[in-house]
Amino acid sequence: MYNILICDDDIDIVNALKIYLSDPSYKIYEASNGKQALEVMADRDIHLVLMDIMMPELDGISAMVKIRQHSNVPVILLTAKSEDQDKILGLNVGADDYITKPFNPMEVVARVKSQLRRYMQLGSGRLPATLITVGGIELDDNTKRVTCDGEEINLTPTEYVILKLLMTNTGKVYSPRDIYREIWRENPVSGDNSIAVHIRHIREKIEINPAEPRYLKAVWGHGYKMEGDKK
Q: What's CA 104's distance to the chain center, in Å?
């Protein structure tokens, strides 16, 4: 049973999402603002959050910041087409994905399943120990622990999967489109820059100077790659 929290001040949207996610394996919790969402998460083991950006009392971005202080649970932002800057800000503070209103029911279900699958795989602990080392970065795919020069790095599930992909294939150049397909198993929509945002966020965590990265480098006009001695 997966516990999913839907947080939106529009009851019609909440009800629509509940219909889309009417699955025996999902238990739905509701909140109408960020403050209520945090209260639900304090009392329940939530596996995924669908969070609106514009809400009273505590908006989705502010709630996102507070969630990331103690949890790596997947968060999918619910956004309007006019909220492009808020989408980028949300990704910067730790959101894993976003869905634009009006919703396509099949897209909602697919993205929820994708994020849940990745989150549960990261937390399952059933995979054999696999340590990937590139330079001073170590990624343990058993414990899902990442360190850089001995210091533990706190990554969101999406950031973890992107870093693992690039570390596993050191020196190989991946375009943003390639990374998107590897992560979500579908083609990105035109103009989607979420991968660039995730890459920037990863750099801020693993690089001494993100503007002059040692490891996660851009190949202009082509994409990104990891550099460093692999062990």
A: 20
Which pLDDT belongs to residue 122?
Answer: 66
Number of H-type helices and E-type strands within the chain: 8, 11
Neighbouring residues of 23: CB distance < 8 A, sequence distance ≥ 6: none
Q: How far apart are CA 100 and CA 215, in angstroms?
A: 33
Q: pTM here?
A: 0.59
- CA dist 32 and 38 (Å) reads 11
Q: What DSSP element (H or E) covers 166? A: helix 157-168
Reduced to 3 states (helix: H, G, I; strand: E, B; else coil), residue 228 is: coil
Topology (CATH) of 2-124: Rossmann fold (3.40.50)
State the span(s) of the chain assigned CATH 1.10.10.10. 131-226
Omega cis (within 30) before 56: no
- Rounded to an integer, what distance in angstroms lies between the CA atom of residue 189 and that of residue 99? 11
Tokens of 177: 């489109």
pLDDT in tens, 26-56: 899 999 999 999 999 988 889 999 999 989 9
Query: 3-class SS at 16?
Result: helix
How confident is residue 171, by pLDDT bands cut at 50, 70 and 90?
very high
- Helix (H, G, I), strand (E, B), or coil: what is residue 79? strand
CATH classification code of 131-226: 1.10.10.10
